[in-house]
Amino acid sequence: MKLFLPALMLLALGLALFSGLPVAVVLIAVAFLFGGIALVTGAMRTEEFGAIFHRIYGTLSDRDEVVYAAVPMLLFMGAVLHETGLAANLLSACARIFGRVRGGPAVATIAVGAIQAPAAGMIGASTGALALYALPALRRHGYRSADAAGLVAAAGSLGAVAPPGIMLFFVADAIGVQVPALFLAMLAPLALLLALYLAFALVRGSQPRGEGASPASLGGALLATALMVGLVALVVLGLATLSEAAALAAAGAVLAGVLHGRLSWRVLDAALRQTALLSAMVFFIFVGANVFSWVFRLLGGAEMVAAAARALGGGGQAPLAAALALVFVLGMFLDWLEIVVIALPALAAALAAAGVGGELGNAQLAGCWIGALFAIALQTSFLTPPFGYALFLVHGATRGEVPLAQVWQGALPYVVLQLLALLAVAALPDLATWLPAQVLDLSIPRGPKFSD
Amino acid sequence: MERAARVLDAISAGIGRAVAWTGIPLMILAAALAPIARWIGWRTDIPLSEASTAAFLATTMATIGYAYAAGAHVRLDLVSRRFSPRLVAAVELVGTLVILLPLCALIVADGVDSAWRSFFQGERWADTGWAVQWMVRLWVPLGFVLLMAAGFAGALRALLALIRK
Questions:
Q1: pTM over 0.80
Q2: Residue A359 DSSP SS3
Q3: Which one of A59, A132, B131, B146 is at 20 to 30 Å from A415 when CA atoms are compared?
Q4: Maximum distance among all Cα pairs of chain B, rounded to whole angstroms
Q5: A338 vs B74: CB contact, 8 Å cut-off?
Q6: Contact A130, A108 (CB under 8 A)
Q7: DSSP state of A262
Q8: ipTM summary value
């Protein structure tokens, strides 16, 4: 009986979402409705109901770690790089560097996909832009449309799992692991993914066609790379907080725009507009999910999810596999943001309760491992036919010139590569945990947010 | 009615843009200066991180209505895109009147109350001790008032669509 109300709450959320009303509004509304029911039936006290309001202000003004402000700053940096054309420079420079080798254009596309991390995943425009710049170049080099489209979709989604990606930020928050730790944890799995992609690019490579590198675009490429690397380094070395580093990188992007003579009021206005709209959208859902989770937990939702995880049994492997499969399936229908802020906190808490990752001996390390797995599973779901997000983006960016069926066909090999990487990280947690354990002090535990 | 909707949209979008266009540069500037000030051992009593957080909260709250007016909030249209235009309009109208507006009103009432209490209790910023946190708290009800304006505009449009058949 106790599990009845949270189950009903999930069901109500699922149904109400289909109304087509904004997701954030639906989340808050369902939370208030079930909060009200619980208040009437006595399952919730009046103070607890009042605390719902505090979640709205409290979520955004976390005084302990001022990290959320990093999100609009990262978005702004990505928007400036994009609007000034410096991101496009990056691709042409990479194409020139790698143009002389077998599979070079593919390698260049993959490199750009990984470097444009903060914008990727969040802004469909970054995959769209990659499609606009890279698809014609790939075709010119003799790639079949299907192969080229699959490659662009896969490379575009790669940014989602590369630090300092926005998705990783929210995954870390949902699991209750330090953001820098997850950034570091992703480096080895990312390298593995890159190696798999590159090997595939070489095997399927086209004939080389040399073009000389132009110093101007090379400068832009180096700059964009330096911004990302510098940002992560500042945070990992403890020289700056995440939002401070993000602010420095954003300022650096503006400066780079000025130095290249590409910054105009129009560019600034477009970048600010994109940042404001995206950030409002993201944080409205984030606040909504926090309010929802708060009521869900008060109604015993955490116990319900944990009971479900225990019912699967299997000593940790089965709950983990089930959670990853669930994320993967949800990823075919929902955007990553909804999955990460709504489902992930509950799943992570359930996995922790089932003792998954306990053999790693440290909640932070277990979180790094589980976070890396979730991130790769989410990225894979972008690429999986029939509903993968990146597939639609590529199809859309070509104005339907490449049929969806061809994009699906082209993306399939990359789905296989993704699953290989996922299995490797699942089998060898060291891939995700070794680097953060070496560099960071993870002795300060920060339990799962869902249960604090 | 269409004009009323446009005016409401313009209000929420205009204020949202004005706040974002100052808030985002301010938040970046403050957060970028903070580590530099620390590295060169400059005076530490400048509320840079507090200001950055305040700018972030103000910007986020003030732009929720703007994003609503611009149609930037995620909606799950898996099912609803098969609805007839009339059903979409009806759902929008009922959803706004029954869910969005009352919800906003509740949040605005509580937000004003919380800012009021913060003002009287003199809630302070950690690094300077200035008792100005109530101004930050006030952005929550302000933001939801703007969202109400944008929501009301959407409801008017939905009503128009229903009347015109």
A1: yes
A2: helix
A3: A132
A4: 68
A5: yes
A6: no
A7: -
A8: 0.92
